[in-house]
Amino acid sequence: MTLKECYENLGGNYEEVIGRLRSERLVQKFTLKFLEDKSLELLKSSLADQNYEEAFRAAHTIKGICQNLSFDKLLTSDSALTEALREGKSPEADSLVEQVFADYEQTVSAIRAFQESLA
User: Fold this and answer.
1) Contact 17, 70 (CB under 8 A)
2) CB-CB contact of 81 with 100 (8 Å)
3) Residue 94: its pLDDT value, please?
4) Which of 36, 41, 52, 58 is the most buried (most CB within 10 A)?
5) Can you say whether residue 89 is alpha, beta or left, with left for phi > 0 and alpha for psi between -120 and 50 degrees?
6) At what angle do helices 52-69 and 24-33 cross, to 10 degrees?
7) How far apart (Å, rounded) are the C-alpha atoms in residues 83 and 90?
8) Residue 11: left (phi > 0), alpha (psi -120 to 50), or beta?
């Protein structure tokens, strides 16, 4: 699997990220590093603890990473969740969380498949 195919599978914009980072090697490095990020776990635990300020920070971190790496599909759903959490608990946030989790899983699955193809 190529990095471009990985981006197609995760709903990202390969051309945009290459234009930004100017190096496929850098894009690959940071894409694989995404697997180590703990922001989703923090988001889940913060929501479970009803700590909406911390949940907002976790969602905002995911949003920033997605913007930098052009993970557009996850960026779209997570941006909506980030805004819903901006002022704390929100009924809208409850309906957005599952989409973020699904998009996150799709992103991670595509990256893992790419990682396995490198071995």
Assistant:
1) yes
2) yes
3) 86
4) 58
5) beta
6) 160
7) 10
8) left
d(CA 46, CA 4): 34
CA angle 72, 83, 37 (to 5 degrees): 55
Who's near 70: CB < 8 A, 6+ residues apart? 7, 12, 13, 14, 16, 17, 20
* Residue-wise pLDDT tens digits, 29-38: 999 999 999 9
Number of continuous H segments (helices) and E segments (strands) in the chain: 7, 0
Residue 92 in tokens: 């809208």
